[in-house]
Amino acid sequence: MTRILVAWTAAFILLASAPAMAQDWSQTFHPDSLPPELSEIRVVIATGGPGAVPAGQALRENLRQSGSPMVIDNPVISDVQGLADLDVVERLAHLPVDAVVIVRTFGDETETEAPEEAPAESGPEASAPDAPEATSGAPELAADAADAPAEGADQEPAPAVNAAAAAMAMITFYSLDGAAIAGFMVYPGVALTSEQRRNVGRGISQEAFDATKSALEDARAGEEEKSGRLRLLQGNGRDWKLLDRETGETIMHADIYRRLEREDLAASYEANAQRQARRASLGKVTGSLGLAALAIGSTLAISTYVRQLPSESPAVAGCSDYGHPRVQQNCHSQESFDALSGQRVAGISLLTAGIVGAFTGLAIYYSRRSIELHPLNFPKTRELVKEANAAATREDESGDASPDQALPRADQTDEMSLEFAPYLQSGPDTQGGLQLRGRW
After folding, report:
1. How far apart are CA 34 and CA 181, in angstroms?
2. DSSP calls for 222-264
3. How far is the CA of 187 from the CAs of 26, 36, 104, 325, in angstroms?
4. Are 76 and 91 a contacting pair, CB within 8 Å?
5. Gap between the Cα atoms of 88 and 79, Å rounded
6. Dihedral angle, C-alpha 45, 51, 53, 58, nearest 10 °
């Protein structure tokens, strides 16, 4: 009995530690085995499948240890097993990350199928009618078997434990636009190979992100206009360009709307441009006057501190009554400073006005950007381009059709036709009527 208890204790310890050993992902996602490019991007991790939570946690911790700027768990869906990858990316695209990492785990199929095959392998000996014969032949063994569980009971808990364990995991990196940029299969306790690290690094590098984003933006921008000759491009800021693919001509400013045959929009653009120019001129003039006032005022104010009135001035006439030259000099300086106080106040006032004028002119000059040049926003203007392309396509199609194609030809008519023709026969027996004619 003691041996049975010891054996059962050892088996229980092994079974309890089996999931932990199967779920040891720390070496798989060790910081030294991860591509260095992972430390340059921000990711959100979404997990799904049996035993996916430990795999996701290990990946998150090791990414943080490797220096990744931001690693967050999926805050929207706890388990993504029943969702497609693109649905997961769409739900997480609003997060401030660069990529979505989906971790999907899979169990060991051989272990889950074992319990279904066990009854077939037991054979006829395990059937119920034969059980009394086996126990009657060996009473002592039957008693021991009654005390100890059957052998099949040892294997019964194993499928339940392994059902929550992951034998492998598929890691897929997606950009926020839904493009798969890297993917690889991993196993518990097995680190990434150097080839896997290179492939993953190339997929998630900043160059790959930029190329994928640029390709998607080009595809999205040209989706509506790919059938036409005109294409609207948005450059830096408000610099829009209309490209004629046939001639290679680049059209800008109000000519964009003239090319689209919208003179009203072209006039609005020119009026807005004139308003911008007037505001810019007003800002320049105001700023220039402010700078001039600043220069004059500062000159006047500073000169009052160093300038002295001439000795003949009535303001300093009383200083000559002092006998000592130094006293006379001090009196002269003080009286001159007091006499020039009005000029000093005027200079300081002019200096202050100049500062205010300079900043006001600067504000007016840069406020011209608040006036929108284009009467329509970019999406609406793109719709106009789309309509112009569609109209041009219809004209080309109608122009290609010749008059001969518009009218039916003789060889295109039906092979058989019927027609009625009136007739009149004169003579002794005058008669008339309708005659039926047929052709085939």
Report:
1. 16
2. HTTTTTSSEEEEE-STT-EEEEETTT--EEETTHHHHHTT-HH
3. 11, 20, 12, 102
4. yes
5. 10
6. -80
Cα–Cα separations (whole angstroms), residue 226 to 52, 211, 213, 369, 406 = 44, 20, 19, 32, 29
Enclosing H/E stretch for 336: helix 325-339
Distance CA 17, CA 168 (A): 18
Percentages helix, strand, coil for the chain (3-state, rounded to 5) are 60, 15, 25
How far apart are the C-alpha atoms of 286 and 363, rounded to whole Å? Answer: 10
Residue 314 CB: number of other CB atoms within 10 A? Answer: 9
Q: How far apart are CA 80 and CA 103, in angstroms?
A: 9
Predicted TM-score (pTM) above 0.85: no
pLDDT beneath 70, residues of the chain: 1-23, 33, 37, 39, 108-164, 197-228, 234-238, 399-440
pLDDT score recorded for residue 365: 94
Q: Supply 372's token pair.
A: 């929108």
| CA–CA dist 152, 173 (Å, integer) | 43
Question: How many CB atoms neighbour CB 92 within 10 A?
Answer: 24
56: nearest Cα among 45, 65, 68: 45
Domain boundaries, the chain: 2-123+141-213, 224-268, 272-370
Residue 81 CA to residue 102 CA, distance in Å, equals 10
CA–CA separation, 197 and 33 (whole Å)? 7
Cα separation, 342 vs 153, in Å, equals 110
